[in-house]
Amino acid sequence: MRVQEQLEGESMATKLKTEFDVDKGIEQLVGALINPIIVWPGGELTKEQKDRVTLERLMKAADINNPEEASDYEVCLYQMTASLAGPLSHTGYKVYMHAFSKVYGEEQAKTLLPGAETTLDPQEEVEYKRFKRWLYRKQVEGRKKGAKAK
Question: Average pLDDT of the chain?
């Protein structure tokens, strides 16, 4: 009876829509499967890395509070391929180490690079979030551009 009272005057679809935007959820799920992986131009990834990106994206798509941003693992891959092309800036390096520690754990980051800073100051955190959103936008743009070409 209680559920019926809550839904009185609105359809189940409307109730669901207010709690979770179904269209957005479907778009994120599709994107998790087919969005291109953005790396530094010329960067190449292994099959295992590509498979892990898909898994990370699916886990993010399953979270209804998921912001429209790339995963920490995708940040690691982009920064890894960028570092092969040339040295990262100080902020770029800190972003890379921060993402690495979130993906692989603080201990692993400290073991590989003793003394590496894995925490970001507030301004670097803003840049980190901006970078994750930029990567996500590039993924969506790449998918839509690919769809138009077909």
Answer: 84
pLDDT band at 11 (very low <50, low <70, confident <90, very high): low
Domain limits at 140?
Answer: 20-149
pTM: 0.79
69 touches 136 (CB < 8 A):
yes
- Counting the structural domains of the chain, the total is 1
Q: Is residue 11 part of a domain?
A: no
Domain-located, residue 77: yes
Any idea what the Cα angle at residue 138 is, between residues 58 and 81, rounded to 5°?
85
Please state, in angstroms and rounded to a whole number, the distance separating the CA atoms of residues 109 and 2. Answer: 51
- Dmax over Cα atoms in the chain, in whole Å? 64
Evaluated on CA atoms 103, 108, 110, 114, the torsion sign reads negative
Is 4 within a domain?
no
Q: Is residue 14 part of a domain?
A: no
Residues in CB range of 66: below 8 A, 6 or more apart: 28, 60
